[in-house]
Every structure is written in C-alpha cells, then in structure tokens.
Amino acid sequence: MTIPAIGAITAAAPALATPPALDAGAAGPVGSSGTDFGAALGRGLEQLQQVQGKADNLAVQAAAGTLADPAEYMIASTQASLATQLTVAVRNKALDAFNEIMRMQA
C-alpha cells in the first residue's frame, strides 16, 4: 500500500496566507528516504524557536520600558502562542498515528 505524497495533498488544498515567520519554506517532493520530511520538520522547529525568541526579546523590552510600540509585542506573542499550539497539535496527531500503526496486526 502506498501513501500519496504530501505535496499532492497540499496542492488540492486552498492556499492560505502564512506569516513570513511561520512559512515552512520551499520543500521539494517527498523522497523515499523521508529526508525531505525530516528537513521540513527541522526547519519548522527552527522557525518556532525564532518566533519564540522574538516574542521573548520584545517581552524584555516591554518590561524594561524601551519598547516603542506595545502592539508589536502583542502580535509577536500571539504568533508565538499560535505556532506553539500548532506544533503541539501536529505532535499529538503524529503520536496518535504512530500508536495506531503499532496496534495494527501484521
């Protein structure tokens, strides 16, 4: 049984605007070795760290009173929160899928 490539599934889905900080970047077609998926996952986690770091830096500036626009911190904080929620949801789904595969009979 073969599983269709992720690119084929996402090509059929409507395109949604993604903030540049959360953009997964250009990923090639999924190869048989899974290295493309692993690389995309790694890039996603790196971008999550960048978004969290930006929110942390702006929080320090806001606490110190050096932040000119408090809305900038609120936007970064919301982006970081949403990115974290998405990452946790993807992890949970991946664990559910793994557990379901492990319960299958050979």
List the helices and strands and how they pair.
Elements (H helix, E strand, L loop, with lengths): L5 H7 L22 H30 L5 H34 L3
Helix pairs in contact: 2-3
Describe what this molecule looks like in 3D:
The protein has helices spanning 6-12, 35-64, 70-103. With 106 residues, the protein is an all-alpha fold. It has a domain at 35-106. The model has no long low-confidence stretch (mean pLDDT 79).
Question: Summarize this, please?
Answer:
The chain has 106 residues and is mainly α. It has helices at residues 6-12, 35-64, 70-103.
What is the global morphology? elongated
* Overall pLDDT score: 79
Number of helices: 3
The rounded Rg comes to 18 Å
> Percentage of helical residues?
55-70%
Strand fraction band?
Answer: under 5%
Encode the helix/strand succession as letters. HHH
Q: What is the strand tally?
A: 0
Give unreliable regions as ranges.
none
Class of secondary structure makeup: mainly alpha
Label this structure with key terms:
106 residues; mainly alpha; 3 helices
